[in-house]
Write a structure and sequence with these properties.
Strand content: 35-45%
Number of strands: 53
Mean pLDDT: 92
Low-confidence stretches: 1-5
Length: 625
């Protein structure tokens, strides 16, 4: 504090910034948070800077329903589900047009998972597989289970071995011949008209030539009775036939959720999200996503609440359901082997309370698993007292704005660079896991993340492509564009959205300088904004008092740095100093109770970041009203 002509000049500084605070009135937020920040994110030091821009790479049939990547035979493939087509798409200067791999698929949001060097895709209407060259229905080459093992020709005495495959109707019966019987009874009647195949001691036999079939009775009659086993002779009679069960395949095809899980590893695919069976999920065979046994399902809680997604927590799989106030919302699944070496999955009730609102609203920050609910983003964690799994809010500072978004059930989440991004209606809400966590008194020692808010990011699905420590963020749009954030561009063109300017702003609190009853006047000198250095940068300094319906601009300043490789003669500068610089605003604001300083940047190809704001003012008379 200094004195000029007997008048005390007061100083207020805003620095050591964190994230936004949409929970309080602009006059009540902490001085290091902003009640009005758009398209900003923390830099490596935690200070707010303009987010990266994005650009359109390619266009496919609208909308983009899913973006996927898969490493197949040591080569990375990018796949997009656009409208009713599946494409392979490319990134790079010589990318070329997307290549159509399959047409006529369901136009709905899709999910996919990589296993056994193939990409397995669920569209909500089909189950497809991409092998690096073509996309086809999984049913074309799905696993054929042996449903009966070691039966005699009458079908008796055998062992029920494997369950039928939901995906396709074929199944095998294995018999031990007696050397006399010609008629073999299958384990099903009314079998399909598809050709029946048989091998006898490894030799293929043909229907109509070597045997006949009574499909109604489910019997196969050989022309010559197969030989009985002899010492040292291997093999048996194996008959392959089809038995279609109505809607079996649709149980898989209509699923819209996929993850992986297993005994101590992730060697099985788990699917769910079928609207006809909202509380049911299915587990695939070991390392075989083409085999979903018809009995390999779990019922999770009551049917009235749907499974929304999964999170892996150590050796357990958390199953998160929607919340309707009637059922537990989180269930915990464990995996073990029984005495015969078979996998056993046990699901137990964990907690009731907060449930998920979007099937695509799941992501993680480092090792913490998060999901979007109707009241914010929650983490699955352990209670200090009971060691049971509970959920805790992590998005406190953006919840009022996030939860007011219409259509929250269509929100899409992704993990990126230590943060969680949630997109909905062209807006993105960010939980920043790179900054120090914040603790609220009412949280009883629990923490929340610093948060940010973006606009003009029309993402309806995400893809975070990771190579080593590098993460490249792509998104698809409702009008069929595949877009990429400009993390690969080193020049100032990285700060543009498809060539257009990014509007970014940061505002201080509506500050009453600790006394709302006294009128203050910001004096004309001694006020500044400290700007982060960029080759191209500028800022508009605006003000808002309790008298103003909108903010009014007072100062505009450019802060460029000279660079031989990037010269703009319309704003030429000899400044080569890469240190932070101040924009001094010689503005007087008279007789305010509360003053908010707003710093904006809306210029194309310009960086923008803020290190601090300094304000000098004098106190005046008491306010009259």
């Amino acid at each position: 504090m200094a004195r000029r002509s007997g008048v005390s000049i007061m100083t207020t500084t805003y620095s050591k910034f964190r994230g936004v605070d949409f929970t309080n009135d602009p006059s009540l937020v902490e001085p290091y948070r902003s009640p009005l920040a758009i398209n900003m994110l923390s830099d490596s030091g935690g200070m707010p800077e303009k987010r990266l821009g994005w650009r359109t790479l390619q266009t496919v049939e609208k909308p983009v329903n899913g973006l996927f990547s898969a490493v197949i035979k040591q080569k990375t493939h990018f796949i997009v589900h656009g409208g009713t087509k599946i494409y392979e798409w490319f990134d790079g200067p010589d990318a070329g047009e997307p290549k159509v791999l399959k047409d006529g698929v369901t136009n709905a949001k899709s999910v996919a998972i990589t296993m056994q060097e193939k990409l397995w895709i669920l569209t909500g209407g089909e189950y497809l597989v991409y092998d690096g060259e073509a996309v086809k229905s999984v049913s074309e080459d799905a696993y054929v289970p042996t449903t009966t093992l070691g039966a005699d020709p009458s079908g008796a005495g055998g062992t029920i071995f494997e369950s039928p495959n939901l995906i396709q109707p074929k199944r095998k019966n294995e018999f031990i011949p007696d050397g006399e019987t010609k008629v073999y009874q299958l384990d099903s009647t009314d079998i399909d008209s598809d050709a029946v195949m048989a091998t006898v001691w490894g030799e293929e036999k043909k229907e109509g030539t070597d045997f006949t079939v009574d499909r109604a009775k489910g019997t196969v009659t050989f022309n010559t009775a197969p030989e009985k086993p002899s010492v040292g002779k291997e093999g048996a009679v194996i008959i392959t036939f089809s038995k279609t069960v109505e809607d079996y395949a649709q149980k898989v095809y209509k699923c819209r959720i996929v993850t992986s899980y297993g005994v101590g590893t992730s060697d099985r695919v788990v699917i769910s999200g079928n609207p006809d069976f909202p509380n049911r999920d299915w587990t695939s065979g070991l390392n075989d996503p083409s085999y979903f046994p018809d009995l390999g399902y779990n019922l999770v809680g009551i049917e009235a609440t749907a499974i929304m997604g999964y999170h892996r927590i150590g050796e357990y799989l958390a199953v998160i359901k929607e919340d309707n106030g009637q059922d537990s919302t989180v269930f915990i699944r464990s995996a073990s082997l029984d005495s015969d070496g078979n996998a056993v999955f046990k699901t137990s009730q964990s907690i009731a309370g907060v449930g998920a609102v979007s099937m695509a609203g799941f992501a993680s920050i480092l090792d913490e698993q998060l999901f979007l609910s109707g009241t914010g983003v929650y983490a699955i964690t352990s209670s200090y007292l009971t060691a049971e799994q509970i959920v805790q809010n992590r998005s406190y500072y953006i919840d009022p704005k996030l939860t007011a978004e219409p259509g929250l059930e269509s929100a899409q989440a992704v993990s990126w660079n230590g943060s969680m991004l949630v997109s909905v209606n062209g807006h993105v809400y960010i939980l920043d896991g790179r900054q120090n966590k914040s603790y609220r008194p009412q949280s009883q020692g629990d923490f929340v993340y610093e948060c940010y808010y973006w606009e003009n990011v029309p993402a309806v699905c995400w893809l975070n492509y990771k190579t080593g420590a590098s993460e490249t963020l792509y998104f698809g749009t409702d009008d069929g564009r595949i877009c990429r954030f400009n993390s690969d561009i080193e020049t100032m063109e990285r700060y543009a959205d498809d060539g257009a300017a990014i509007f970014a702003c940061w505002a201080t609190k509506a500050d009453d300088d600790d006394d709302v009853t006294v009128l203050k006047t910001m004096i004309k000198k001694g006020n500044s904004v400290t700007i982060k250095p960029y080759l191209r940068s500028s800022a508009k300094i605006c003000f808002r008092t309790e008298r103003d319906a909108v903010d009014w601009q007072a100062t505009y300043g450019t802060m460029d740095i000279f660079d031989w490789e990037d010269i703009d003669f319309s704003r030429f500068t000899f400044n080569a100093n890469e240190a932070p610089q101040e924009i001094l605003f010689n503005t007087k604001v008279k007789k305010y109770k509360r003053l908010q300083i707003i710093i904006k940047n809306d210029a194309v190809n310009e960086g923008f970041g803020i290190y601090g704001v300094t304000k000098h003012y004098v106190n005046g008379n008491f306010a009259k009203r």
